[in-house]
Amino acid sequence: MFELLGIPPQVLMGQLLLGLINGSFYAVLSLGLAVIFGMLNIINFSHGAQYMMGAFVAWMLLEYLGIGYWWALLLAPLVVGATGIVLEKLMLSRLYRLDHLYGLLLTFGIALIIQGLFRNYYGISGLPYQIPDALSGGQNLGFMFLPNYRGWVIVASVIVCFSTWFVIEKTPLGSYLRAATENPTLVGAFGINVPRMITLTYAFGVALAGFAGVLAAPIYSVNPNMGADLIIVVFAVVVIGGMGSIMGAIVTGFGLGIVEGLTRVFYPAGSAVVIFVIMAIVLMIKPEGLFGRSA
Amino acid sequence: MVRKTALGSVAAAALVAAPVMAQDAIDVTLGVLNDRSGIYADLSGEGSVIAAQMAVEDFMAEDKGLNVEILSADHQNKPDVASNIARQWYDQDGVDAILDVPTSSAALAVADITAEMGGAFINSGAGSTELTRGQCQPTTVHWTYDTAALAIGTGGAMTDADTSWFFLTADYAFGHSLEEETSRVVEEAGGEVVGTVRHPFPATDFSSFLLQAQGSGANVIGLANAGGDTVNAIKQASEFGITQAGQSLAALLMFVTDVHALGAQTAQGLVLTEAFYWDLNDATREWSARFEERHGSKPTMVHAGVYSGTMHYLRGVEATGSTDGETVVEWMKANPFDDPLFGQGYVREDGRAIHDMYLFEVKTPEESTGEWDLYNLLATIPAEEAFLPMEGGGCEFVEAAG
Q: Where do the Leucine-binding protein domain residues begin and end (chain B) (predicted)?
């Protein structure tokens, strides 16, 4: 049996699959960021906090209202999206004409406030959230034991990612959106309510973060810092893929998950930095990102 | 020098300005320095301030002529921030003793500054054995636990002649030292360490490391990490069916707040070592109920340690009539304590508080009758066996005296 650098193929297969699962989270989160940046030119630094809110809303639905995982998967993104609408209407909409930096600072501040509030009410240790019964247990694939829930995470993210890509790149609605980004005045002259479309786009991007939060709740610790730990990596993914590129965000999200997974086998201590090393290399060679259109 | 002048002027001011106070009223300022917003905020944080307040009230300090004030601050788990606050407290705010201080690197920094400034340092939150060994100070008391005690408790309990261990270690000083201490205990008991993987700190996804641990075929997977890392690792181990397949998990540092975060469903069967649990006996239950009323959750061993350490410190201040760090700590070492939360014990010459430790197993959801009803007591580790011996510990002032 062949071995690669002393790692048996079964182990390698297992790690590839695990990388793909982590990549699913990166893909859904960076997709939301890419949609928001692509359409609004806002660098949404509160994305991590909104991901965390998704997980917390799922927990609250169960704890206070007895609503389980499947409904939470639908309701939590709606709730988080609704907070996104409020945020966009009240604050972000005032910043579109200014430099990117203002949006970044505003959303970063909001992220700190949201995290602080949750920390104040729920503490830092986290809250328990169980895997739904229908998805507990797992399959023995021969080379590894794959929990059903992780399989579901891959399926759900792939569906969500490609539907989003399809809507934005291949439907009339998506073409309005893209046109509104290019020239809002002209699109407005055709009778399309551009501000509302932008609000809804932001809400959608934020809802994607909330959706990822619900997906994460049963497997990661539901705590106020869960997003802060992840958001920096996700930003690196977006930069590597090319800011604002939908397909770039999806492909690099999954791809970098795999790269990170392999690093965990060959050189575990380096797994925290491998994505940033790749980011640095990409920025040197192709500053607009792998899938970015050069400006 | 500065210190004496300040004390002198305070005493003078008290004499001149307050004839109504008892003649020998002593001003004592305690500073609770810990993590108020990061990963250790639940196990120390505001709860430790409440525990210190409760100690002052229960001690009835006012009736005994002690005028106690409590300050608190957030050191953000950073040694430089902790040093700055400690220095300012001693220099400008008249602090006499610093309490709690989780995060070993921050605690070691505060220990040195305390010795330099003539204060007292009653540590509850940090784990490093260095506080009472290589970097000991005559003004340090290490009250609650240390990594060696955890290793002796959990490592000893889970190792038989041919038990094999695999470590998942957080890649920083604390994780390394916990792994090292436990490996020693395991090997002394005749067990074997078959492998180790160092994960970045903090980490979210442990599946890859867990699979490597599973592949090693070890009997026990030792988690040499803390807080959110431990919680995530255990959650994912349960998901990947690792415990169901026959391997045991040993959480080498885990607090009741972490177990609470996991819930009994996920954490059941875990074996862990703590110095305190709220449901040990009537005294711990009574105190914990009062604590919960004020804080909203049950106390951790760190909170309990702040309470008991403060109590013993105040006894020392009362007995010696002094707030000089070395004098009070010397009294604390000379006089054993009989404490409602930690039982009978004493502070050893090197500053290590010696008391019983407990080995617990997390209850199953069926056994657990409430959200905080989480542990079954497996064994009490007698005080004399619970900690590393002082001999050969490398504490300079002890060896110089001996």
A: 28-363
